[in-house]
Write a structure and sequence with these properties.
Blueprint: H1 11-27, E1 49-56, E2 62-68, E3 84-91, E4 95-102, E5 108-115, E6 121-127, E7 142-148, E8 154-160, E9 166-173, E10 179-185, E11 201-207, E12 213-219, E13 225-234, E14 237-244, E15 259-265, E16 271-277, E17 283-290, E18 296-302, E19 317-323, E20 329-335
Antiparallel strand pairs: 1-2, 2-3, 3-4, 5-6, 6-7, 7-8, 9-10, 10-11, 11-12, 13-14, 14-15, 15-16, 17-18, 18-19, 19-20
Length: 336
C-alpha cells in the first residue's frame, strides 16, 4: 500500500502541508477524528510499497512517486526482487494516465522528484543495481539521477559514485538549465575526486542539462554529513541545508551530537557563509521551503534542550524552524 509523503510541490502547497501536519495533528488533536476525507485511494500490491513524492499539477492531476517492493496487482511490472521506483499520473476521477517503473535487479530508492522547465521531470535517489535502467554503476551504492519527459520516458539516466556507498538526496534545476545535486559520499574515487576529510561527507555537484558533471565538492569534517535540501536564492548562488556531526574541517561551529548545517555556496561550490543550528543532542531537518519573504522554513526533529531549542516536550519532538536566507534563526518551535 502506498502512503503518500509529499515534499516538493509548489512552496504554497508545501507550506500548507507543513502547517497542517504540525497544527492539526499536534496542536488540535481533539479535532482530528472529526475530519472527513473527500476521497481516498490505495495503490500497491501484496508486499511493501512506500509513497515518497506527490506533485499536484496545474491541470489538477497528481504525479505520484513511490518505492515499491510488490510485483503484483497495481505494481505488476516491477522488474526487481527488491525495490523499484514507480511513477504514475493519476486524476481524482480514478484515471491512470501512465505508469512507469525504473530500476534494475538491485534496490532503488527515491529521495526527490521535481518538475522541470521543459514540462518533464527529474528525480534523484540511490541505486544498488548494475543492469536494467542503471548504467555505469560505480560501487556498492550509487547516486542515481534520471531525467524524464512529460510521459515518464527516460531521456537520460546517470550514476555518480565510487567504490564506497554514495546516496543521493536532493536535486535542483538551476536557472542556467543544468542541475545541482546533493547527497552523501563514502567514496574517494570514481566521480568523487574532490578533496575530502573522513567518514560520510556532503557531496555537491553541478551537472549540465545532459547530466554530465561540471564540478563536484566534498563538504564536511572528520565525522558524518549529508545534504538534505538545495535552493537557488539568487542566480548561481545556492543554499545548502544538511546535517553534520563534525567539529572540524569545513564546519565552522558545532553544538551537539548532530547539528543542522546551513551553507551558502557560489557558482562553483565555494562556501560563502555558513550557520549551525541546534542544541546539545541530535537535531535534524527533513524538509525545507522558501517563504514569500525569502526566509527558510524547515521541518525536522530535535532531541536537544538548549541553544536554539527553547523547550523540549518529551524524548524527541517535531521541530519547526525559521531562519533568514543566511541561516540566522528567526524562531524555533517544538511540538510533541
Amino acid at each position: 500500500m502506498i502512503v503518500s509523503n509529499s515534499r516538493h510541490t509548489t512552496w504554497l502547497s508545501q507550506l500548507s502541508l507543513l502547517l497542517s501536519y504540525f497544527l492539526i495533528f499536534w496542536l488540535f488533536p481533539s479535532h482530528t477524528f472529526s475530519q472527513v476525507a473527500f476521497w481516498q485511494k490505495y495503490f500497491g500490491g501484496t508486499s511493501f510499497d512506500l509513497g515518497q513524492e506527490l506533485i499536484v499539477k496545474t491541470d489538477g492531476t497528481l504525479l505520484v512517486a513511490a518505492d515499491v517492493y510488490s510485483s503484483d496487482k497495481f505494481m505488476e511490472g516491477n522488474h526487481s526482487t527488491s525495490s523499484d521506483i514507480c511513477l504514475f499520473q493519476y486524476s481524482t476521477q480514478n484515471i491512470i494516465f501512465w505508469k512507469k517503473f525504473y530500476g534494475g535487479s538491485g534496490e532503488e530508492t527515491l529521495s526527490q522528484l521535481i518538475e522541470t522547465k521543459d514540462g518533464g521531470y527529474a528525480f534523484i535517489g540511490t541505486t544498488g543495481s548494475q543492469d536494467g535502467d542503471v548504467r555505469n554503476a560505480k560501487g556498492q551504492l550509487d547516486i542515481w539521477v534520471v531525467k524524464l519527459d512529460d510521459l515518464g520516458t527516460i531521456q537520460w539516466a546517470e550514476t555518480f559514485g565510487g567504490t564506497g556507498n554514495d546516496r543521493g538526496f536532493a536535486i535542483l534545476e538551476t536557472t542556467d538549465g543544468g542541475f545541482l545535486i546533493g547527497g552523501e559520499s563514502g567514496s574517494m574515487n570514481g566521480d568523487m575526486l574532490s578533496e575530502r576529510h573522513n567518514g560520510l561527507e556532503c557531496w555537491l555537484a553541478k551537472l549540465n542539462s545532459r547530466g554530465s558533471i561540471i564540478w563536484e565538492r566534498h563538504l564536511g569534517g572528520d565525522a558524518n554529513e549529508r545534504i538534505v535540501a538545495l535552493k537557488e536564492v539568487e542566480r548561481e548562488v545556492y543554499t545548502v541545508v544538511g546535517a553534520s556531526s563534525s567539529r572540524n574541517g569545513d564546519k565552522g561551529e558545532a553544538f551537539g551530537k548532530k547539528d543542522v548545517w546551513i551553507l551558502g555556496v557560489d557558482a562553483v561550490g565555494n562556501i560563502m557563509w555558513q550557520s549551525t543550528v541546534g542544541g546539545e543532542a541530535n537535531d535534524d531537518v527533513h524538509d525545507v521551503i522558501i517563504d514569500a519573504d525569502g526566509n527558510l522554513l524547515m521541518a525536522g526533529t530535535t532531541f536537544s534542550t538548549s541553544i536554539h531549542i527553547q523547550k523540549q516536550q518529551g524524548k524527541g519532538d517535531a521541530w519547526l524552524l525559521k531562519t533568514t536566507n543566511k541561516g540566522e534563526v528567526i524562531w524555533s518551535r517544538t511540538f510533541g
